[in-house]
Amino acid sequence: MPRGLFITGTDTEVGKTYVAALLAAELAAAGCRVGVYKPAASGCAVASGDGPCPPGTLVSGDAVALWEAAGRPAELDRVCPQRFAAPLAPHLAARAEGKPFDLELLRTGLDYWTARSDFVLVEGAGGLLCPLGEREMMADLAADLGLPLLIVARNALGTINHTLLTIEAAERRGLPIAGIILNTPAPRPNDPSVAGNPGEIRVHCSHPILGEVPHGGPLPESVRRWVRGLAG
Fold first, then answer.
1. Percent of the chain clearing pLDDT 70 (strictly above)
2. For residues 139 and 131, what is the distance between their CA atoms, to the nearest angstrom?
3. pTM for this one?
4. Structural domains in the chain (count)
5. Domain coverage including residue 51
């Protein structure tokens, strides 16, 4: 098994893909063969044919962003092998569309990337407690894949609670946590919590806040140094 991270979020739309793509680009620039894997995605669009996907096929914009950032390694179709149109939890989207949802493929789909990568980035859907069926959650998949978690949190009002709940859910399941990145997914000039959130989270948890990514901005130097250490 190569080195890697399982990137999870404190909610949906917190910037997991944006941060993961920045990490992929940084690793690739450091000379790593980067594998990118999103086991399942919902809310996918139908490809028009203007991009890398054949027209009429379902395309995950997140998967394309990861693949592009990593330098277009191997086959795009392998980045996200299970894609659904409905904006629901993946198993519910599959049910709504009358499609199978393959729990085993969620796990074995990573094998393609581990065989040809020095470092793999796996991006989960939603958060750790996003359901993957009646008996499984995203946390179960993370445990089976065996990669340390990188938690991406939205730097906005409410993130202290969301971040600490995510950490608690991970710790209760024995999932290792590599660190936390705070992402500001949209300008919030009137949100006074942004400046104080990192310090308050540090008070209540023992896991490192690796850095803060401003809206649409690059990785801070603290995170870049950390990533270069991962590239080893």
1. 98
2. 9
3. 0.95
4. 1
5. 3-231
